[in-house]
């Protein structure tokens, strides 16, 4: 519970002190990953990782880190500059051979792409057999589903965007159905369970204590209360039945 309180306190200053929030989140991500495998001598691809806040946390555990970010303007804006090993590329067409990564991390990206299934396919492709795919996203009906237009997204994403533009004199950074898409818990769980070449190893609300995973068993309620869903997929070994 202390962890959840700490994360939500950091979340409250995301807009005013993003370094604190994303630094806290990076450390927490690494600790979550270590529940499933050690990071020492592992190759980690961070897909859509923005400024690469995860770099220091991974390397402190002895892992190799590579940032993949489609927006060159987002790279290097952090205090540590551009992380070594950074690649500008689209998550749908990663410039890597199959099976290059021990761990593929894709944090808070799924709601920003029009084809979540295609992105998951590519994450699994570049992960080695037996490796992990760590995917999290903010679901649409969570309190933060509309991002900066929240909570008005409950009345419609387009309406919320128009309201934001009227109040602030500019469109929201996350534009509805252009760079922000409604993604739901139920549909994404089904997608993960049917993922070719990988099995769903775990699913839980990312920011809550682990017993809160019981929320995912309750359709409807899980869409409102999960806030952010974390999926852990493990790529099939050769000859395995997914």
TrEMBL record:
Domain of life according to the entry: Bacteria
GO molecular function: methyltransferase activity
GO biological process, alphabetically ordered: methylation
Keyword Protease applies: no
Domain Methyltransferase type: 45-134
Name of one Pfam family that matches: Methyltransf_11
Gene3D superfamilies: Vaccinia Virus protein VP39 (3.40.50.150)
Keyword Transferase among UniProt keywords: yes
Keywords for this protein: Methyltransferase, Transferase
Listed name of the protein: Class I SAM-dependent methyltransferase
Organism: Amycolatopsis acidicola
